[in-house]
Structure formats: structure tokens, C-alpha cells
Amino acid sequence: MPTDRSQGQQANRNGRTAENVIDAILRLHASAPPIRQYPVGFGIYGTPLQADFYLADVRGFVAGLIIESKWQESSGSVDEKWPYLVENIRHCYPAPTIIVLHGGGFRPGAERWLRTQVDSHRLFAVLRLEEFMKWCSHNL
After folding, report:
1. Quick check: 65 pLDDT over 80?
2. 37: domain CATH number?
3. Nearest-CA neighbor of 122 among 82, 99, 90?
4. 9: helix, strand or coil
5. Do the Cβ atoms of 40 and 92 come closer than 8 Å?
6. pLDDT tens digit string along 31-56?
7. Residue 138: CB atoms within 10 Å
8. Which residue in 54, 63, 81, 86 has the most C-beta neighbors within 10 A?
9. Would the pLDDT of 1 be above 50?
10. Count of CB atoms within 10 A of residue 102's CB?
């Protein structure tokens, strides 16, 4: 049986892999390479925030576009952190944001809730990886 530490390490590794997949998709479709770990300013708690990706030159997005990658393979705490993320997007992020969900381990109610938070302005979209790939191929 794996230890908590090894489960955490595996989750971190899977999260980095998911980010690498998004990076590859963005590099394939975007006109300029994405900026990873982009500093967006200070969050609702007054602490520094970094977005997973920022694209400066995106048609239809004057302020650019932020992409957040959220991986959860099995039940855990990632979906419990979504309200914090949404509040930061609404009040602190300098550009519209797409949240990309991977892994399928979120609580169904949490994913439904997150999708209801989309306002097509600050939180532009919540997409599964397959949906994000399709969106990129049509919009970048």
C-alpha cells in the first residue's frame, strides 16, 4: 500500500504531466508560446498568485487568456479548492480564464457547480481536456 507521501508525489507528477499536455496543445495552436507559471498579482488572501498558463496574443481576448489545469484522478481535495480559484479568477485575475479538468476523479456535484460559475467574461469556460483540444483547434 502506497504511503500518503508517495500518493502526493504521484498526484504532483500527474498534475505536471497534465500541464505538459496543455502546453503541447497550446504550442501547436497558439500564435505565440504560452507563458507558464505566470504571475497574476495577489489573490483574495493577499498572497501572490501564479496562473498555470498565460497567452498574450489570442484573437478576441484583448487582455490575453489564462489557462488553469486541474488534475484529479481519484477522490481528494482538488475540487474542494475550486471556490477559492473561482473567487480569485473573478476578483484578481487580469484576463479571462479557462479551467481545464483532467483525470475524472472530481465529485460530480463539484464539476456541475464549477460549470455553473462560468460567466463567459472572467471565468470564460470550464472544459474537459478533450473539449479544450477542440476549442483550441477552432479558436486559436
Report:
1. yes
2. 3.40.1350
3. 90
4. helix
5. yes
6. 889 999 999 999 999 999 999 999 99
7. 8
8. 54
9. no
10. 22
The CA distance from 140 to 89, in Å, is 21
Q: What is the DSSP letter of 117?
A: T
Overall domain count for the chain: 1
Helix ranges restricted to H, 30-128:
82-91, 108-116
Sequence-distant (≥ 6) Cβ neighbours of residue 129 within 8 angstroms:
18, 21, 22, 100, 101, 102
Q: Which residues pair with 41 in a beta bridge?
A: 49
pTM equals: 0.86
Q: How far apart are CA 54 and CA 68, in angstroms?
A: 9
How far is residue 18's CA from residue 20's CA, in Å, rounded to a whole number? 5
**What distance in Å separates the CA atoms of residue 26 and residue 110, rounded to the nearest whole number?**
26
Grid coordinates given for 74: 481519484
Q: Where are the alpha helices (DSSP H) in the chain?
A: 4-29, 82-91, 108-116, 129-139
Domain that holds residue 120: 4-139
How far, in Å, CA of 43 to CA of 128, rounded? 25
> What are residue 95's phi and psi, to 5 degrees?
-150, 160
